[in-house]
């Protein structure tokens, strides 16, 4: 029952927070509960077998029998890290929001925990309808988070966010229902189980646009591409990021965007192998354009938060390119980059939130010379900047390197262009860094009425785990990659005949490795 | 015609009899007390007891597929489910009437009597398989409603609404009756069961029958507000006192769809391509028009009225599905399940609107909800649940309603209708979110009316809980509905 506990405990926490009578201890309570959740998720490692490509710790029973819809959860090397990313970031976000969320504190933490359940459920659900329920549920708390605690244009941003992502996913629902009927045709009984979907051989005739597989492929891909967000359906993201409160931005960049790229790995690529291959150029193109376009737009942003938001478009483009390279480098690079982006961009948004709390401005031109005033803040910001521009020994390097390696192997043309993103990334981040931290002291920094204070103990406690992860993942990538290697290898090698199996508890790992490959 | 009415017939119609008898209690009491109202709470309690008895009798005696009164009425799964939904909705609407300022005046006993008479008409309608019986049910239900709307004292809009509803409702009835005459002319009878097996052929061979069935269907399109016959809906829904609107939008719509379903179940659609095409387009137009028109509404009731037009469009997809499939049970149970979810969430939305009305002529606009979440967090949460459910966001019941409905449509090969349905639900999200935005994200001091509203509050909370909980157990409910239809 470990997966169900991990997914639904936050929902219980949300209830506890909602009925908690003392308003002044809600933050402590929420922090404690989220740490419990994180520790519980660490217990996954005790049961997880890294040598197996199969689905582990499976829990399933019939939910809606009439249509073969199951309550079906399982974990493998692909979802493992995304689950941990979610549980790892949540306590950090709660601690980080300590002083930035001052109104309706209870509601905020309720939303936070509901969102956590929705995200974890999305990563672990192995039944299409079950998955869809979590997928859509995640919109609701995020909608409130931006809409209630956000900035001046929060309502525009939150409605745009909701409608964009909702519009993207309704076609996926139609496609899911259609595929349920395909399972009925193939086996006689209807099923929404992902494992049964994998067994479908959906016709793909000559790659024409109207082949069934292509249509279903695009129905799914659109939903995921909007979530990623891939160019040109990315426009909701900068708005949402800029208007969201700091914790909202962190959770959005840190986890929610990964739901899109995860969707490509889990659903699109193995379910529609021929269509994915045929249209891979399109998604690599979209990814590459996203990399360059995001970087160029980031460069000219006067608002530091918007800059980071556009850098997300660029970074997420890498992941898309890596996934559609269809080789072990590209795929594992893509997965690694998902984690990296969660950590580095999450940290950047936290840092920006901290300085915003002090100055109530995010305009780059009003800063300058911060390094002299806030040395500790500068050091942290610098480390994260290095990670974001993928300097060797940081986590970002490993991800981008693997992705580019994979892309060169698969489609060198795209790699030539994608690699420019590395340089552009360095340009906009370092240029921003220079303008904010060095040079003349800007009007906000030398404001004598409001002297700036360096990071306090709480803020350091927020940032230290993230910095540790930056170096840990940068120095010892195998600690992480080893856990997903079997799953990724299996996905790469058996893409056209993907047949995820359920690993029974207690079986020896060597058998799975054989069975998996 | 050989008319044998026995005890079994009386047992079958016992819900109607019970409901009618109980409806007499409040007005009798009023007469006996020298034209003085008994306490409103007592009247309400009597009405609710009547409804509970009727539901109980419906469960015990209905549902066996038996016919009564010379095949004029049938008591099968559709009767049972639709009847229960309609009666439940009527009960909830009466609770609202008890506490709404424009309905709780001096004539409360009469009002409850009329509402219950209307409910008797509804029970006839859900079980009628003779077109004339359908007509009787329709008229009995509607006449009581015209009076109910016109009865409210001051409100100018409600007189207008009553008149509009009366004229257009009569027009719809006339259209329906005209169609029945044609059908009688071509088949020599008006009983649906009689021409059930031959209808698919008749629409092809007999022009007269095709005319007849078309007019009957158009009559229903008026009743359930399918575009372009929906024009009365927003005006009447807005003008009528809110509890009446809730009554019309849920109970009346449910039973009208039940009767619609019975006519469609004759398989006329399979016979006639044109009829099928026309209905498909009507569904598409209704969904798009209802949803787009709702976007620009500021009046809360008007917005929900347009939303209910859009939901009629979704339901029409289910009706078409039931009509074209060999085994209509799947499509029909999709419709029933959707009506169940629709009734709960629409009643909820109107209940909130009813609570916000401070006086008889008070008009609730969406902007008035500003700050509602701070003042009444519980009710705001309930309204959020209703709106998310109306928009079809999981894991609410509304999502599963859409899922089953579209699932049936896709199963019958009506993929493009399901896609249209999905596209229009995206449009719908835009306006369903607006009250949520205003409630939670705008400053203001929305207050519910000052007098006590306990009963309505309890009903609202129950409905919100039902929407969340039933979402998780929707599978067994759906299966139960489907099984009862075989």
Automatic annotation (TrEMBL), chain A:
Chain segments annotated as transmembrane: 6-22, 29-48, 68-95, 107-126, 132-149, 161-182, 202-226, 247-272, 278-300, 307-329, 335-356, 368-393, 413-431, 460-481
One example of a Gene Ontology biological process annotation: ATP synthesis coupled electron transport
Domain annotation NADH:quinone oxidoreductase/Mrp antiporter transmembrane: ranges: 125-422
Keywords: Membrane, Transmembrane, Transmembrane helix
One term under GO cellular component: membrane
Compartment annotation: Endomembrane system; Membrane
Protein's membrane topology: Multi-pass membrane protein
One of the record's GO molecular function terms: NADH dehydrogenase (ubiquinone) activity
Main subcellular localisation: membrane
Listed InterPro entries: NADH_Q_OxRdtase_chainM/4 (IPR010227), NADH_UbQ_OxRdtase (IPR003918), ND/Mrp_TM (IPR001750)
Top-level lineage group: Bacteria
Protein family according to the UniProt entry: Belongs to the complex I subunit 4 family.
Protein name stated in the entry: NADH dehydrogenase
Species, as recorded: Bdellovibrio bacteriovorus
From TrEMBL, chain B:
GO CC annotation terms, alphabetical: endomembrane system; plasma membrane
Main localization, broad class: membrane
Tree of life domain: Bacteria
Keywords noted in UniProt: Cell membrane, Membrane, NAD, Quinone, Translocase, Transmembrane, Transmembrane helix, Transport, Ubiquinone
GO molecular function: NADH dehydrogenase (quinone) (non-electrogenic) activity; NADH dehydrogenase (ubiquinone) activity; quinone binding
EC number: 7.1.1.-
Entry's localization field: Cell membrane; Endomembrane system; Membrane
Reactions it catalyzes: a quinone + NADH + 5 H(+)(in) = a quinol + NAD(+) + 4 H(+)(out)
Biological process (GO), any one: ATP synthesis coupled electron transport
Pfam families xref list: Proton_antipo_M
TM stretches of this protein: 12-29, 41-61, 81-99, 111-129, 135-153, 165-188, 208-233, 278-296, 303-324, 336-356, 377-401, 413-433, 453-478
InterPro entries membership: NADH-Q_OxRdtase_suN/2, ND/Mrp_TM
Bilayer disposition of the protein: Multi-pass membrane protein
Entry annotated with the keyword Cell membrane: yes
Domain NADH:quinone oxidoreductase/Mrp antiporter transmembrane: 128-428
Annotated function: NDH-1 shuttles electrons from NADH, via FMN and iron-sulfur (Fe-S) centers, to quinones in the respiratory chain. The immediate electron acceptor for the enzyme in this species is believed to be ubiquinone. Couples the redox reaction to proton translocation (for every two electrons transferred, four hydrogen ions are translocated across the cytoplasmic membrane), and thus conserves the redox energy in a proton gradient.
Oligomeric form and interacting partners: NDH-1 is composed of 14 different subunits. Subunits NuoA, H, J, K, L, M, N constitute the membrane sector of the complex.
Family statement: Belongs to the complex I subunit 2 family.
Protein name in UniProt: NADH-quinone oxidoreductase subunit N
Organism of origin: Bdellovibrio bacteriovorus
């Amino acid at each position: 029952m470990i997966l169900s506990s991990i997914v639904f405990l936050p929902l219980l926490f949300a209830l506890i927070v909602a009925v908690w009578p003392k308003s002044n201890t809600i933050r402590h309570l929420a922090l404690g509960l989220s740490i419990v959740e994180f520790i519980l998720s660490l217990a996954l490692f005790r049961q997880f077998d890294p040598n197996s490509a199969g689905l582990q710790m499976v829990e399933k029973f019939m939910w809606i029998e009439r249509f073969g819809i199951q309550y079906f959860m399982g974990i493998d090397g692909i979802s493992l890290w995304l689950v941990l990313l979610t549980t790892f970031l949540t306590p950090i976000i709660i601690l980080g929001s300590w002083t930035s969320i001052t109104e309706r504190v209870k509601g905020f933490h309720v939303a936070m925990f509901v969102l956590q359940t929705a995200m974890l459920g999305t990563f672990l659900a192995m039944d299409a309808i079950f998955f869809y329920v979590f997928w859509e549920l995640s919109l609701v708390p995020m909608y409130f988070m931006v809409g209630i605690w956000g900035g001046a244009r929060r309502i525009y941003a939150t409605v745009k966010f909701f409608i964009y992502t909702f519009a993207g996913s309704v076609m996926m629902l139609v496609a899911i229902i259609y595929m349920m009927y395909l399972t009925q045709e193939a086996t006689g009984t209807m099923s929404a189980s992902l494992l049964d979907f994998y067994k479908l051989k959906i016709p793909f005739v000559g790659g024409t646009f109207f082949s069934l597989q292509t249509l279903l492929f695009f129905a799914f891909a659109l939903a995921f591409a909007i979530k990623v967000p891939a160019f040109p359906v990315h426009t909701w993201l900068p708005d949402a990021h800029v208007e969201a409160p700091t914790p909202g931005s962190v959770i959005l960049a840190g986890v929610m965007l990964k739901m899109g790229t995860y969707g490509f790995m889990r659903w699109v690529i193995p379910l529609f192998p021929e269509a994915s291959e045929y249209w891979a150029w399109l998604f690599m193109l979209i990814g590459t354009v996203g990399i360059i376009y995001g970087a160029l737009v980031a460069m000219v942003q006067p608002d530091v938060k918007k800059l980071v938001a556009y850098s997300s478009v660029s970074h997420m483009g890498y992941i898309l390119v890596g996934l559609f390279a269809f080789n072990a480098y590209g795929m594992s690079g893509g997965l690694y980059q998902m984690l990296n982006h969660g950590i580095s961009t999450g940290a950047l948004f936290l840092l920006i939130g901290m300085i915003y709390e002090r100055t109530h401005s995010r305009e780059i031109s009003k800063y300058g010379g911060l390094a002299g005033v806030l040395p500790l803040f500068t050091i942290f910001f610098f480390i994260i900047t290095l990670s974001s521009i993928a300097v060797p020994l940081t986590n970002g390097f490993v991800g981008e390197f693997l992705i580019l390696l994979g892309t060169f192997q698969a489609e060198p043309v795209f790699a030539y262009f994608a690699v420019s993103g590395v340089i552009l990334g360095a340009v906009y981040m370092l240029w921003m860094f220079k303008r904010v931290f060095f040079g003349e002291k800007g009007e906000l920094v030398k404001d004598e009425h409001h002297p700036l204070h360096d990071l306090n103990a709480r803020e350091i406690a927020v940032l230290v785990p993230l910095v540790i992860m930056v170096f840990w993942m940068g120095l010892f990538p195998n600690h992480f990659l080893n856990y997903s290697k079997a799953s990724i290898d299996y996905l790469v090698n058996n893409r056209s005949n993907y047949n995820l199996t359920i690993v029974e508890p207690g079986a020896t790992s060597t058998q799975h490795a054989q069975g998996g490959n | 015609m050989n008319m044998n009415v026995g005890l079994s017939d009386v047992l079958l119609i016992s819900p109607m009899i019970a409901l009618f008898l109980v409806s007499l209690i409040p007005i009798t009491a009023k007469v006996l007390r020298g034209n003085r109202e008994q306490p409103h709470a007592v009247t309400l309690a009597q009405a609710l007891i009547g409804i509970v008895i009727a539901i109980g009798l419906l469960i015990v005696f209905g549902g066996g597929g038996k016919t009564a009164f010379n095949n004029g009425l049938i008591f099968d799964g559709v009767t049972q489910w639709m009847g229960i939904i309609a009666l439940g909705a009527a009960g909830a609407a009466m609770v609202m009437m008890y506490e709404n300022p424009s309905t709780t005046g001096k004539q409360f006993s009469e009002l409850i009597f009329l509402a219950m008479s209307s409910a008797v008409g509804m029970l006839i309608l859900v079980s009628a398989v003779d077109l004339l019986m359908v007509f009787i049910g329709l008229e009995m239900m509607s006449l009581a409603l015209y009076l109910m709307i016109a009865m409210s004292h001051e409100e100018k809009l409600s007189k207008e609404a009553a008149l509009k509803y009366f004229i257009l409702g009569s027009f719809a009835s006339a259209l329906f009756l005209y169609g029945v005459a044609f059908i009688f002319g071509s088949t020599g009878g008006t009983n649906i069961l009689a021409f059930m097996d031959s209808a698919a052929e008749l629409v092809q061979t007999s022009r007269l029958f095709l005319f007849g069935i078309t007019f009957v269907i158009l009559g229903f399109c008026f009743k359930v507000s399918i575009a372009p016959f929906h024009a009365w809906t927003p005006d009447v829904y807005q003008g009528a006192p809110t509890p009446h609107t809730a009554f019309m939008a849920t109970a009346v719509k449910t039973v009208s769809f039940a009767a619609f379903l019975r006519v469609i179940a004759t398989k006329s659609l399979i016979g006639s391509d044109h009829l099928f095409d026309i209905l498909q387009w009507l569904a598409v137009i209704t969904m798009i028009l209802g949803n787009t028109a709702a976007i620009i509404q500021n009046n809360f009731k008007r917005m929900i009225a347009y939303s209910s037009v859009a939901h009629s469009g979704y339901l029409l997809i289910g009706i078409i599905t039931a009509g074209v499939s060999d085994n209509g049970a799947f499509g029909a149970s999709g419709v029933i399940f959707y009506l169940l979810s629709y009734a709960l969430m629409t009643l909820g939305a109107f209940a909130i609107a009813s609570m916000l009305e401070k006086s008889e002529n008070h008009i609730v606009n969406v902007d008035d909800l500003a700050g509602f979440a701070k003042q009444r967090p519980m009710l705001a949460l309930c309204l959020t649940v209703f709106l998310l459910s109306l928009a079809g966001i999981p894991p609410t019941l509304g999502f599963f309603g859409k899922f089953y409905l579209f699932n049936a449509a896709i199963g019958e090969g009506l993929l493009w209708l399901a896609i249209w349905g999905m596209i229009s639900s995206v449009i719908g999200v835009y306006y369903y979110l607006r009250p949520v935005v205003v409630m939670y994200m705008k400053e203001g001091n929305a207050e519910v009316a000052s007098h006590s509203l306990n009963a309505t509050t309890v009903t609202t909370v129950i409905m919100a809980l039902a929407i969340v909980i039933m979402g998780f157990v929707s599978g067994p409910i759906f299966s139960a509905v489907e099984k009862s239809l075989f």
